[in-house]
Every structure is written in structure tokens, then in C-alpha cells.
């Protein structure tokens, strides 16, 4: 039986150099059966783990939520930044969630139909779709999205990285929009973002808890401390570096 290891993404090249192989089914690096030297070498750097089953079903999840247009720009309110499913569950549980979302989608993007492609730097990830109801940010659905769609969804991040043209093109092609339709969508998304960013929101991850996964919600005061009011986001005259610092990107 192969032995699996918890190898951080940034260590993957090191693990590969030591003889580790990648298991797509579990999305983990492992030492092949019959190679005790590889097992020992990997164990010097990373812990051995037992793969856990992926989570593909989330009770009361609304799989149709946000299905039109195919890709919609989803600007997370600044008062909800730094709070997500990934930050509220254990590392191994997030891996189970992410893997399950990919498997049930047939390892293809549910938005544009693209599979992962390492040569084109396209990978798949679990994207969280929220609704905002009566002061509560409610997780409604988890979507398998490719990196191009995810980049377009969070258009503000693409803009911050000066990659908005690629995001625009992907939105136009996937949704069948012309420039006028795209610009109208962006104006509406930006107006909604500003409105939502003007208040605090509770966080509801009940669809995750209903799947039997423990959730540790951030305390209200901690959420308020980490929140960034939208007036602080890219004020007039700010440089890109200053904007990225507000967004929390490393230097």
C-alpha cells in the first residue's frame, strides 16, 4: 500500500525530487509501495496521513443558485473579507470538500466546461457562492470552477493584478456578451458590492455543518476587526502596491 503525506503546495517540487508521486484520486503526494527509501525520505519532512473520503453531498445545498449568467462577477463585501469555508474548517476537511466538489462535477469546470490543464496553467478549485439575506451571508452552493472562471468571478482581484483584460475576455466569450453588456454587468456588480460593504454580516455555513463537518465561525468582534470598509479600497491616487496591501496580498 502506498503511504500518503501532507505536503504543502510550495513543497511539491521538493517532494517530487525525493521520489514522491502524485495521486489524482486523493490529490495527495505518496511514496510508492515497495520504495521504503522514498517513504523514509519524505517522512523526514512531512507527516504521513490516511486519506479521508471526499464530501460530495451537502444537505439543503441549492445547486441551481446563481446559475445565470454562466459566470457572474461576485465581489465579496469588504466586511466579509478573510472569512470563508476554507478558513472555518480544518485543513483536511477543506481538502475533502474541495475534492468532492471536483469529483461530482466530473473534474470539469461547471461554469465553462473546461478540464484542468497543467500546460495551460488551468486548475480546478471549489468556489463558494453566497447569498446575502437579512444581515446574514449564507453559503448556498459550492461550485467546481476553473482558475480562469474564478479569476473572472473575482474581477476586483484581476483588476488589482492588472489582469482585467483576460478576465473581461473570458466573461465576454463564456456569457456571449458584447462590451456594453459586460460593462453594464460590472457597474451593477460594483454598486451591489458597495451597498453590501456598508454593513456587517453574520456568517451561515450550515450546509457544511449539515454534511457532518465541524465549522468554527469567527467571533463577531474578530470579523469586525478584519473587515475593511469599502472607502479604504483603492482610494483616489493610491498606488497598486498600496491597493494590494489593503487586499492582503504579500509584498
Name the features.
single chain; about 250 residues; alpha+beta; 2 domains; four-stranded antiparallel β-sheet; three-stranded mixed β-sheet; 11 helices; about 40% helix; globular; DUF5710; DUF5710 domain-containing protein
Describe this structure in words.
Helices cover 38% and strands 14% of the residues. It has 251 residues and is α+β, with helices and mostly antiparallel strands. It has two domains: 47 residues, no CATH class; 170 residues, no CATH class. Strands 2-3-1-4 form a four-stranded antiparallel sheet. Strands 5-6-7 form a three-stranded mixed sheet. α5 packs across α7.
Number of domains: 2
Number of helices: 11
Q: Quickly give the structural class.
A: alpha+beta
Biggest sheet record: 4 strands, antiparallel
Q: Give the overall pLDDT as a whole number.
A: 89
Share in helix: 25-40%
Number of strands: 7
Helix-strand pattern, N to C? EHEEHEHHEEHHHHEHHH
Strand order of the largest sheet: 2-3-1-4
- Radius of gyration equals 20 Å
Amino acid at each position: 500500500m502506498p503511504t500518503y503525506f501532507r505536503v504543502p503546495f510550495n513543497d511539491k517540487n521538493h517532494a517530487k525530487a525525493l521520489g514522491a508521486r502524485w495521486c489524482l484520486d486523493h490529490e495527495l503526494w505518496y511514496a510508492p509501495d515497495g520504495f521504503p527509501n522514498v517513504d523514509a525520505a519524505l517522512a523526514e519532512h512531512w507527516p504521513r496521513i490516511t486519506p479521508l473520503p471526499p464530501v460530495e453531498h451537502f444537505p439543503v445545498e441549492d445547486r441551481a443558485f446563481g446559475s445565470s449568467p454562466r459566470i457572474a462577477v461576485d465581489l465579496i463585501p469588504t466586511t466579509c473579507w478573510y472569512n470563508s469555508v476554507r478558513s472555518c474548517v480544518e485543513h483536511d476537511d477543506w481538502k475533502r470538500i474541495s475534492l468532492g466538489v471536483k469529483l461530482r462535477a466530473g473534474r470539469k469546470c461547471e461554469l465553462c466546461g473546461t478540464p484542468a490543464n497543467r500546460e495551460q496553467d488551468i486548475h480546478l478549485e471549489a468556489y463558494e457562492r453566497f447569498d446575502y439575506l437579512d444581515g446574514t451571508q449564507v453559503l448556498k452552493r459550492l461550485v467546481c470552477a476553473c482558475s480562469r472562471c474564478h479569476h473572472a468571478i473575482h474581477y476586483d482581484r484581476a483588476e488589482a493584478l492588472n489582469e482585467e483584460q483576460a478576465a473581461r475576455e473570458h466573461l465576454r466569450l463564456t456569457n456571449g456578451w458584447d462590451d456594453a453588456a459586460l460593462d453594464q454587468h460590472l457597474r451593477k456588480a460594483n454598486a451591489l458590492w458597495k451597498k453590501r460593504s456598508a454593513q456587517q454580516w453574520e456568517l451561515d455555513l450550515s450546509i457544511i455543518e449539515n454534511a457532518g463537518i465541524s465549522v468554527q465561525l469567527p467571533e463577531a468582534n474578530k470579523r469586525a476587526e478584519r473587515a475593511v470598509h469599502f472607502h479604504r479600497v483603492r482610494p483616489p491616487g493610491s498606488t497598486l502596491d498600496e491597493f494590494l496591501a489593503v487586499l492582503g496580498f504579500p509584498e
